[in-house]
# Entry
Amino acid sequence: MPLRGKKLGLLISVPPDHTNFNHGVRLAETALAEGVGVYLYCIDEAVKGVSDPRLQRLKMAGLKLFACAYSARRRNLPMGEHAAFGGLIIVNDLIAGTDRFVSFN
# Structure
């Protein structure tokens, strides 16, 4: 089954040093390499990873990177240009607008 043109939504809630964060990053990388549109939302502890060089490289390669503004504020993290910060309505849109949605908790 051809994957090019499909859309994959990812949600990551664990910190950047967690195994599941790494799994999410690798899935995003693999999907992008196959021509899949990838939309990644970081929430809870994962907001600490939006400036992670791996995610920023993937963003340069076409990853659409979003992060939870509330989670960032609660952790006193700056909301800069590393990701598009917003609320849970983004997650709702990703679930509704992608072919597959996967969560790494």
